[in-house]
Specification:
heterodimer, A: alpha/beta, Rossmann fold, Dihydroorotate dehydrogenase B (pyrk subunit), domain 3, 16 strands, globular, B: alpha/beta, TIM Barrel, 8-stranded parallel barrel, 8 helices, 18 strands, binds flavin-adenine dinucleotide, binds flavin mononucleotide, binds FE2/S2 (inorganic) cluster
Chain lengths: ~260, ~300
């Protein structure tokens, strides 16, 4: 984990309200693993005060750290205004990251909206076994073109809520259809997911029902990102023992069976 | 010129620090979390997360919400508890060459005494900081620190059970903080630290629900600094024991305000989240400030306030 000023190499809108930012940091890139995140200070000074957490979406040329983000509030609006040559203080890489799939496993990556970010790094990093990516978006305008981020082609399917592209309906429909196919081998598959809470809850339920290993990358409001403030708690499924995990250090990636999805 | 020019060493009664910059409880974990980012031995001291007899899981999420130039937290004093602290945290803390202070809290006056007793003679613990901002179960949950006589009784109980210097940490959520400060001083405390967080709340206007699951939280960060500075200044006027200033300190300039107002040392809290390397930067900033102005010893600066 390091803290450093990093130069913005590019920052562009690649879908509606969705930006891709490239930050130069060979040091963080060298340490980064899929599923890890960084805490970004969107500007010096005290407003906004806290750093904002972002998944590492991909790395390029051993020196570029890619962040894929959606403008949802004050901090991300400031980020969207930044241009090449500006710099941000970045703290990272943070968190545990995904447990990588086995050699002969088929990986199913289920993304809801901007939740695709950590899954793309996982796809970029995983060179063994087939990968299928399922992405859900609100509408066609929000679809992220993978070739802008990944240096490899991959098998993917899309769902949109309004039916303007791909399957009309939630991305979990695509997962359900796949898991119900006759030729689907549940013993040789694992699922990785990131997206809105209700979506991940559904994915978790499907995986648990069928006994398929599934890891989810969770979000929580964070202050420190390094386990010092205890602010980022999430309820565990444990009946005795520990009641809360800290998303920043115990996660952000958890096996879905470890989480209480009813909270 | 010697290497120790300017001299930043400060004495708070029986407690000596290599410089006046101390990391505040609850914002610096158990120190270890920051080890990869800085040389912890550059700090004047570290105050660990508030410790209770038994482990505490804390409040349901969300526990944090950002507010203008500040944040509200309702962590609920989550901590590992005495047993794990002694086994897992103390051995590592003992390897540090900086003052380690344990912040303690209880749900009853007896619990404060029990905790103090358990830490008696523990090597590597330089002092106790007593958090009296937490709810007193016997008093319907009213904070111990809002009542002068209860504050004094907690202080006496801790003093009776320890061989270490005792710092009592005051809550700002009172009408007259000077009154509490004097009661705690009379009870025998070696030093005071202030302020803890100011109680606040925030509402989500769409759902009309509180933005913290606990509804109320403690406000910290630069938003509270002017209030904290005023209270520190008032308490410095009201007591003879040393005072440690806390509240919204983000850089060395903020720290200097508190020192000039009369605080013998300062604590840095929320700033650790914003810039995890801020502690050593503040030490350096204070050193440069003194050097540039020919201030040989930090004591020459402390309390040098010129009233209007
Ligand atoms: C481990 C982790 C990884 C993340 N990765 C990404 C990513 O790759 N791309 C991306 O666009 N976003 C990601 N997020 C969410 C991102 O941190 C928030 O969208 C961002 O902090 C909002 O900042 P803001 O100032 O624009 O919004 P604010 O003005 O602070 O808030 C606007 C809205 O965002 C929500 N929000 C604020 N902070 C968080 C938070 N920490 N987590 C979730 N929601 C929040 C608020 O509840 C509110 O509804 C991640 C969050 C976590 C915890
Ligand atoms: C997340 C968080 C947790 C805290 N936990 C404790 C604690 O356990 N015990 C305590 O005495 N003070 C605790 N505090 C209060 C701080 O030590 C400090 O008094 C307060 O935040 C004001 O300083 P600041 O504005 O520099 O943060 C906590 C503050 C924050 C923000
Ligand atoms: S964000 Fe501070 S402990 Fe996780």
């Amino acid at each position: 984990m390091i803290e450093q000023k990093t130069e913005i190499i590019f920052n562009r809108e690649i879908a509606r309200d969705t930006f891709l930012m490239g930050l130069r940091s060979p040091e963080i890139v060298a340490r980064a693993k899929p599923g890890q995140f960084v805490m970004l200070r969107v500007r010096p000074g005290i407003d906004p005060l806290l750093r904002r957490p972002f998944s590492i979406c991909a790395v390029q040329d051993d020196e570029l750290l890619l962040i894929l983000y959606r403008v949802v509030g004050k901090g991300t609006a400031i980020m969207a205004e930044a241009s090449g040559g500006d710099s941000f203080s970045v703290l990272g890489p943070l968190g545990n990251g995904f447990a990588l799939p086995d050699r002969h496993q088929q990986s199913i990556l289920v993304a809801g909206g901007i939740g695709v970010a950590p899954l793309l790094f996982l796809a970029q990093y995983t060179r063994t076994g087939p990968i299928q990516l399922m992405m859900g978006f609100g509408s066609a305008a929000e679809i992220i073109a993978l070739e802008l981020i990944l240096d490899r082609t991959m098998d993917f399917v899309i769902a949109t809520d309004d039916g303007s592209a791909g399957h009309a309906g939630p991305v979990t429909d695509l997962l359900e259809a796949r898991l119900n196919q006759d030729e689907f081998e549940r013993d040789a598959a694992s699922i990785f997911t990131c997206g809105p809470g209700p979506m991940m809850k559904k994915v978790a339920a499907m995986a648990l029902e069928r006994g398929i290993p599934c890891q989810a990358s969770l979000e929580a409001v964070m202050a420190c990102g390094i386990g010092a403030c205890q602010g980022c708690s999430v309820k565990t499924s444990s009946k005795e023992g520990q009641t809360y995990f800290h998303v920043c250090t115990d996660g952000p990636v958890f096996p879905v069976m470890a989480i209480d999805w009813n909270h | 010129m010697s290497a120790s020019y300017p001299d930043l060493n400060v004495k708070l009664g029986p407690l000596e620090f290599k410089n006046p910059v101390i990391m505040a409880s609850g914002t610096f974990g158990y120190g270890q979390e920051f080890d990869a980012l800085m040389d912890l031995n550059l700090l004047g001291g570290i105050i660990v997360k508030g410790l209770s007899l038994r482990p505490k899981q804390g409040n349901p999420p969300p526990r944090i919400v950002e507010t203008p130039c500040g944040m509200l937290n309702a962590i609920g004093l989550a901590n590992v508890g005495l047993e794990v602290f002694m086994k897992d945290k103390i051995p590592w803390l003992q390897t540090l060459d900086t003052r380690v202070i344990v912040n303690i809290y209880g749900h009853s006056i007896d619990e404060y005494g029990e905790l103090a007793n358990a830490l008696k003679g523990v090597e590597g613990v330089s002092a106790l900081e007593v958090n009296i901002s937490c709810p007193n179960v016997a008093c319907g949950g009213m904070a111990f620190g809002t009542d002068p006589s209860v504050s004094a009784r907690v202080t006496e109980e801790v003093l009776k059970n320890t061989d270490k210097p005792v710092i009592v940490k005051l809550t700002p959520n009172v009408t007259d903080i000077g009154l509490i400060a004097r009661a705690v001083e009379e009870a025998g405390a070696h030093a005071l630290s202030l302020i803890n967080t100011l109680t606040g709340m925030a509402i989500d206007i769409e759902s009309r629900r509180p933005r913290l699951a606990n509804t109320f939280g403690g406000l910290s960060g630069p938003a509270i600094r002017p209030v904290a500075l005023r209270m520190v200044y008032q308490v410095v006027q009201s007591v003879d024991i040393p005072v440690i200033g806390i509240g919204g300190i983000m850089d060395h300039q903020d720290a200097l305000e508190f020192l000039i107002a009369g605080a013998k040392a300062i604590q840095v809290g929320t700033a650790n989240f914003v810039n995890p390397c801020v502690g050593p930067n503040i030490v350096e900033g204070i050193r440069d400030f003194c050097r540039e102005r020919g201030i040989a010893h930090i004591d020459d600066l402390i309390g040098s306030f010129e009233p209007a």
